[in-house]
Amino acid sequence: MLRKILAVDDSALIHQMYKLFLSRYKNCKLISAMNGLEALDKLAQEEGIDLILLDINMPVMNGLEFLQRVQKEPAYQAIPVIIISTEGKEEDTIRGLKMGAKGYVKKPFQASELHGLIEKITTAQA
Amino acid sequence: MSDFQVSDELLNIYIEDARGHLEALDHCLLTLERDGLDPATIQTVLGPLHTLKGNSGMMGFTQIKDYVHRLEDVFAQISEGGIVLGPRPFDRLFAGASALRDAVEQACKAKAEARSLDKEKGELDALIEGGPLQPGPAGGAPAGGGSLQAAPATAPAPRKPRGGDPKASAAGRVDKEYVAPRSSTVRVDFAQLDHLLNLVGELIIHRTKLDRVGTKLAERLGGREMGQELLDAVHHLAGVSAQLQETVMDVRMLPIRHVFERFPRMVRDLARSQGKEIELILEGDRTRVDKAIIDEIGEPLVHLIRNSVDHGIESPRDRVARGKTPTGTILLSAAQESNHVLITIMDDGAGIDPTTIRRKAVERGLLKGDENLPDRELMQLIFSQGFSTRSEVTEVSGRGVGLDVVLRSIERLSGLIEVESVPGVGTKFMIQLPLTLAIISALLVETAGRTYALPLASVIESLKFKPAETHRINGRDTLRLRDRIVPIVRLRALFGLGGEENGTYAVILGRGDKRIGLVVDKLHGQQEVVIKALDVAVSGGHVPVAGATIMGDGRVVLILDVAALFEGKRQAILGRTEIVSLPQGA
Amino acid sequence: MAKAEPRKRARGKGEAPAGEWTSGDEGLVFPDDPDAAAAGRISLPSSGLASDILARAEASFVADEPEGALVPASSESLSGDAAAQRVHNISFFAAPAREEKAAVEATEHLVTFFLTGEEYGVDVRLVQEIIRVSEVTQVPRAPEFIKGVINLRGRIIPVIDLKKKLGLGEVSIERQARVVVIRLRDRLIGLLVDGASQVLKVPVSTIEAAPEEVVEIDANYIRGVAKLQARLIILVDLPKILGVDRDAALALPT
User: Fold this and answer.
1) Which residues of B touch A60 (CB under 8 A)?
2) Which one of C10, C93, C158 has the shortest CB-CB distance to B538?
3) Does B564 touch chain C if contact means CB atoms closer than 8 Å?
4) What pLDDT score was predicted for residue C121?
5) Nearest CB neighbour to B167, from listed C17, C141, C189
6) pLDDT tens digit string along B401-434?
7) How far apart are CA C244 and CA C238, in angstroms?
8) CA of C86: which chain B residue's CA is closest?
9) Domain ranges of chain B
């Protein structure tokens, strides 16, 4: 049961798409952050985040740095992270996976692909 | 491949972002061309390109996405010196940037990719594979210390170009990769700002009312404490709402840089296509102006600048023959003055010849053969409809778009435009615009029981007169105003309001040097009003109305279009539509 | 290992302080993309679970061996053809749009009103609200059919006398007269009518082409008539009457 999803990306367009893609999860709150630093703030403010969708290339604090800090916090370690990958930056994605992200999806992606991955990851957790 | 419908909302977000990224690309190319290779310059464009790539991919614009990806490769190579920048590579890059912009705009219009970028992609490939094309001038020494030299790399460039401690540089790089620091701004939909402004407008209306009622009530309560308290509260409210109004107006103000930004590129392209050398200097691009103005002023400025490039600046050979520098200069400047913005477009080109103007004016019937106009007024004729001092219509300036369109655009913004010129030396266009369009001071008048608003900026004065004081000259009613003869327009007749004409107030309106007197029944005082736009079904054409506003009691009051009154006057009074010159001194 | 691709250098920020990548680690190649294999670039399928990808990473070869490398287990892949995955479109929107179209075909949802005793209908999606006639401010020198403008909650909208526009005479503002507020994209336009009727759904089967009798109005403005038990509703084409492109007018949201 997904109650809160944190989406981290510096593109307003992507956030809008998340809103649409994730609308199928009723009663699920979508929280947006524009960079890693903002995302850390949101993690602290909002309790019970069930999933993080993480872009890597962002200003102020990028996704890998954010992930690294998150992995250090016992409170946040367990939250599954999906990396949003871009072509040409596969190494960053792999690095993220090695750091503990549970999966990734490459831009551009279809809604169904994201849903499928989310399902796999959340059932694996259960 | 599945069918999909891209929503307008998504497209709006996409195109807004994309335009910003494309500006960054243009800016980067211009800077590289002007200042030479500097990795810092390239770094600033990588972030926007990356985001544009991702966004375009998500929207399904694959060609665009692939092209941007290729651009990223190109910039990476440039950064390492794998591509030497000279005039030809720059031309390709600029052309590519234009094509990209075009593809993006077309894709948004059509809601799907509408043009191919294969050719441009091919050119980028050629850049990457071809290695150094020409040992072109790199435009001066690379700026800054520790930057890569613009020469073919002899060894593979180090993975961390800045060298030094990986941890430190990684931390440093996080900050330097993007120019923008921690965001201290909020992204706001302009529609919301408009809504906010509407609310402020309502606040003003009701506060004004409260002011009146409160003051009266306070008087009735005499010197009693409650009276004083009420007055204090009312005054305080007035102060706060004035501040609120100012703040909201302020938020709507953006630096005019947003408009100016596109021009260096435009001038460069135009100049090159005509074999001319032109430098565009921008001044005062931080000057802030209401967004509504920013939205509208772009087009007239484009026309004026194109004018300078086409007809103003001469070819390098002609210039040298006249003892000028081969490179022409266009100065575009903006400055704030009390409550307006002054925008100037000045060039050191061929100037405008008054004799040519005169001849054309007579040809077009705007001037009688023997009529004598002072040079300054003669110049203003170039803004008349259908006036053009060039026999061919150049492709660049487009067909039939004349300075009359520019004039109309500026007047729609409640602005003024004037021109000064010295033949052989140069030309200067001066545009004066109000700082804000949304709220204006208005004079309320009444005729035949209906109330109308006149923009105070156009009101010179108002006076009461007796019917006996009007003189009929050349079939027109006029009033004597000190040393001038002012034609009058009767609002009742003009608007077909019926009833007997018995107005005794004349509001003297000014437009440039001209004056007319608008005859109304009553004057109702000044007030600040929020201008609300009228639907196209109502405005335009013969309707001399510039907008409308809502009074405290909910009544709609129309705001009159002063410019139309000046023009319509001729039509209404004469019942014809031909242009008639005004009597002397009017 | 051939790995020098310029692309990497252009970005690559945020190295983790611990467990740094060294050149040797980046020998992961998935031959979805044979070009990538040849160029020595890393290639990943369009999505995946960490457990799968990292497992393969341990077992992977260095890029010098283009053909011998592993083929990703496609049972895991969430979409079929890898190549097709490269070209993505947002399929999400298609579903609702199709559903909605299906519904629309069965019935038409109308708002009806009266003009001189005849009942007319317009697409409900165009109607924002119906209000009583308030003070209408005349606009001088405006076209004849424009009655004026009104204040609709702070927004000034034009009011068109629909009878004048259709050549049926003039609407006299009596108690039953109403203004039907139409929304076309972001424009709001009020239609002055003799009286409002109701909102109803009519089965598409009841709609026919306009018969000869209804000849007073320009045939272009009529979409058809709905013949219900005791009534005849004349369906008018509002965008046409107002001179607006129909699809632009409706601009159906997804």
Assistant:
1) 174, 178, 181-183
2) C158
3) no
4) 92
5) C17
6) 578 778 877 877 777 888 899 999 999 999 988 7
7) 8
8) B62
9) 8-173, 190-253, 256-434, 439-574
pTM confidence score: 0.48
How many domains in chain A?
A: 1
B57·A13 Cβ contact <8 A: no
Please tell me which chains touch A, using 3 or more CB pairs under 8 Å as the contact test. B, C
B101/A11 Cα distance (integer angstroms)? 19
pLDDT tens readout for residues B138-193: 333 333 333 333 333 334 333 333 334 444 444 444 444 344 444 556 777 777 78
- CA–CA dist C254, C235 (Å, integer): 25
Per the structure, the complete domain to which residue A14 belongs is given by 4-125
- Tell me how far apart the alpha carbons of residues C194 and B503 are, in angstroms, rounded to a whole number: 37
Which range has highest mean pLDDT (B64-68, B128-132, C84-88, C98-102)?
A: B64-68
Asked if B230 contacts B221 with a C-beta cutoff of 8 angstroms, the reply is yes
Closest residue in B to A85 (Cα–Cα): B54
Indicate the CATH number for domain B439-574: 2.40.50.180
Neighbours of chain B (3+ CB pairs under 8 A): A, C
Distance from CA of A101 to the nearest CA of C (A): 7
Q: Which CATH architecture has domain B8-173?
A: Up-down Bundle (1.20)
Q: Could you give all domains of chain C from N- to C-terminal order, each with its CATH number?
A: 29-88 (no CATH), 103-250 (2.40.50.180)
* CB-nearest partner of A88 from B13, B69, B181: B69
Q: Is B161 exposed, middle or buried (0-12, 13-18, 19+ CB in 10 A)?
A: middle
Q: What Å distances lie between residue C159 and C1, C135, C162, C193, C217, CA to CA?
A: 75, 11, 9, 10, 20
- Of the options 2.60.40, 3.90.1750, 1.10.287, 1.10.1760, the CATH number for the domain spanning B190-253: 1.10.287
Chains touching C by CB (3 or more pairs below 8 Å) = A, B
Read off the CATH number of the domain in which A8 is found. Answer: 3.40.50.2300
**Model pLDDT for residues B350-403, shown as the tens digit of each residue:** 988 888 888 888 887 777 777 777 777 788 778 876 676 554 444 444 443 578
Q: What superfamily would CATH give domain B256-434?
A: Histidine kinase-like ATPase, C-terminal domain (3.30.565.10)
Contact of B4 with B61, CB cutoff 8 Å: no
Cβ contacts of C151 on chain B, cutoff 8 Å: 550, 554-556
Which residues contact residue B155 at a Cβ distance below 8 angstroms, ignoring those fewer than 6 apart?
Answer: none
Chain A nearest C-alpha distance from B299 (Å): 28
